[in-house]
Structures are given as structure tokens and as C-alpha cells.
Amino acid sequence: MKNIVVATDLSVTARNAYRYARALSKTLGVGLSIVHVKENVMNITDVVRTPFPSNNDLELIKDIEELVTEENQAMGINASEHEVKIRILSGDPVDVLASLSKTEATDLIVIGTTGLSDVLTKIFGSVSSKVSNKAHCPVILVPRNARWKNIEQILYASDHDSMKAEFAQDIMDFAVKMNAGIHFVNVRNYDPVGEIKQKDIDWGELFVTSNSNLPYETSTIYGNDTVKELNEYCEGKSIDLMVFASKHRNFWENLMHKSITENMALSTDTPIMVVHKDDKK
Description:
Mean pLDDT is 77; it is low at 42-54, 115-125 and 257-262. The chain has 281 residues and is of the alpha/beta class. It contains ten helices and twelve strands. It has helices at residues 12-28, 57-74, 93-100, 118-124, 127-134, 165-178, 203-206, 226-237, 250-255, 258-264; strands spanning 3-7, 31-38, 41-43, 49-51, 85-90, 108-112, 139-142, 153-158, 181-188, 216-222, 241-246, 272-276. It folds into two domains: 3-142, Rossmann fold, CATH 3.40.50.620; 153-279, Rossmann fold (3-Layer(aba) Sandwich), CATH 3.40.50. The termini are close together. It has a ten-stranded mixed sheet, with helices on both faces. The protein has a two-stranded antiparallel sheet with strand order 3-4. Helix 3 packs parallel to helix 5. The longest helix has 18 residues, at 57-74.
């Protein structure tokens, strides 16, 4: 990893995401770029389009530089805003960030989970959730109330199909880099009568290539309310980062059902990393 990209719309939520990304970049010793995507219009309904005011790029850059300076000072970082690269792009934020994720200059995207107002987020869905589904690099969703702290405990939650050694290895490497413990959690619903029984995880197969010095736990949690079960596990184990990985996006798309999106991506205070292994560059 060489560079982290943090998206901003200059909102309070975006400021919080910047603080998280700045601290993470310092911890990992990698570069940080802050990106603002100008969107000229936003669809309110199929027939009504409300224009957003157009800002001069120089004014935007000045506003972002002020944001960076203020947040660095608040974090006690003695660094100029010019240490953070600033980019102004135009277009649909989801499409632009998804395209940016394909470039070699983007290894990880950090984005707040509620960049728009709460009302609009509930109506139109979270831009950050859509970015995490389309991106071709890992995406960390930073909830509004999340605060940076050293990542000491990571939860890797998966169903049977994506709990594979090839998927888990990168997560284990990341945990070693962060000097963190990792919790491998197999999420299972109770097997309904008449449906095929869900397969058990072969934990031994999962750790064939694991680091012997990596502290880890394995668990299988049952329940038809996936979000509730995961949140309770996170609270009980003091999890600092949740990770979801899927080769074909099945597990994450299941989580991104509207009601689960609101509960997990918008309500939890635990940052979430989304990884799509089939999109690995």
C-alpha cells in the first residue's frame, strides 16, 4: 500500500473521515490524497432536478486546505496542508470514485457513511455504500461518530463461500501490519426446514498459510438478524474494524439490503472495510 484516498464533501461527516484517514496513513506510513467530486445536479425525483451551486476550483481547494490545516491542528499534527494531495474531480461521485479505485494511485478509499443530510440518505441510499459495492480497491466506511484509535482487534465476518484461505490471507497480512488480533466469524442463519443445510467452516484449511505469530479467534454465530449478531459481537470483543470480503459480492450484497444498510453502515460506530477479491488489481 502506497496511497490512501479520502473523499470529502466538506461536511462534518467528511471531516471525521479525513481524521480517520490521516491517522491511518501515518500509522501505515503511506501517502494521503483528499478528493472532492463536484456534482452539478442531483436527482430528487424522475421529473425534478435541483441544481447545486457551482464553485470555482480554486475556492474549493482553499476550503479543503483550510479543512486540512484545522484538522491537523486539532489532531496535534505539525504538518502543512501541502503534505496532503488535493484533487478536484467532476461527475457522479459514485462513478468517479469507482473509476479512481482502478488506478495505481489508489490503494484504499476512506469515506464517511453519511455525506448527505440524514433525510436524503434514508431516501436515496448512502453514496458511501454504493462506492463500497463498485470500487476496485478496499473501501473503509467511517461512521459519523467513529473516532480513530489504534486498530488492535479486527473482525473478519463471512459466510461459507467467502471464508477461504485466499480471501483471509490479505486480511491476516493487514492485521500483522497493524499489530492487531483478528476474529474470524462465520455468520450463519438457522437452517430453515426444507432448505439445504449450510456448510461448516474448515478452520484448519483456512489457516494453511497463516502467520504463526498472529493472535486470532474463530467463532460461528447464529441468528437471522445478521446486523444485531455482529454488533453484539463487536461490542463484546471491543472490535476496532469490521472487514467483509466476497469474491462475487453475494455476502456483502445480502448485507446491503436497505434495512440492514441503515442499521449496519449508517448506525454502527465501528468502521467497516469492504474488500472485493474478484476486483483485486
